[in-house]
Amino acid sequence: MRTFAIALLAILAVAATPARVQAQGADLFKGVTTAKTAWDVTVGDEKKFNDRMDLIRQTAESLQKRGIKPDFVVLIRGPATKFVTKTLDKTNFEKDKDKIKNMSGAQATLKKLKDTGVPVEVCAVAMGVQKVDKDNVQPFITVADNVWENLIILQNKGYAYMPID
């Protein structure tokens, strides 16, 4: 009886142990040819914004090295809208002017993403709220009527949703 109880406990212990999921390595990426991702960027902190934009770029490069085509869309709204402007003057972000040390660096990273084929869109609704005129948006940025609509459609088309806040 004691042997039976020990055997039963051993079987239950094995059955209750979750299967090991391999989070890294070739098996995870096997069969994947495209990584469709919608990046919802709202972060208004300059250091975090620059870090996250560079991380998106690095992710695209890493996927390409694995033979996976990154199909990314960067959608900018909320406080992140300031990083696509030509000037913060006469916008609701004017008060942040002294806090932003490297606006050109943030925009260079966005342009680099755009130049590698990643669409970068800013929300016209957010622009209106923040008093950013269309002629105050960098020329390599696309103004979208409402990026929430775009996010909904992209998710319905199978894009992974990645919030950046």
Which secondary structure elements does this structure contain, and how are they paired or packed?
Elements: H1 2-16, H2 26-29, E1 34-41, H3 46-65, E2 69-76, H4 103-115, E3 120-123, H5 124-129, E4 142-144, H6 147-156, E5 160-164
Parallel strand pairs: 1-2, 1-5, 2-3, 3-4
- Report strand %: 15-25%
Helix content range of the residues, please?
Answer: 40-55%
Task: Report low-confidence residues grouped into runs of 5 or more.
Answer: 4-12, 17-22
Count of discrete structural domains? 1
Largest sheet geometry: 5 strands, parallel
The span between the termini is 59 Å
Basic shape: globular
State the total count of DSSP E strands. 5
* Architecture (CATH level 2) name: 3-Layer(aba) Sandwich
Tally of separate helices:
6
Order of helices and strands: HHEHEHEHEHE
The CATH superfamily turns out to be DsrEFH-like
CATH class: Alpha Beta
Could you say which structural class the secondary elements and strand pairing correspond to? alpha/beta
Query: In which order are the strands of the major sheet placed?
Result: 4-3-2-1-5
According to CATH, what is the topology? Answer: Hypothetical Protein Ychn, Chain: A
Mean pLDDT: 88
What does this protein structure show overall?
The protein contains six helices and five strands, in the order ααβαβαβαβαβ. With 165 residues, the chain is of the alpha/beta class. The protein has a single domain, classed as Hypothetical Protein Ychn, Chain: A. Strands 4-3-2-1-5 form a five-stranded parallel β-sheet, sandwiched between helices. The protein is globular, with a radius of gyration of 22 Å. About 9% of the residues have low confidence.
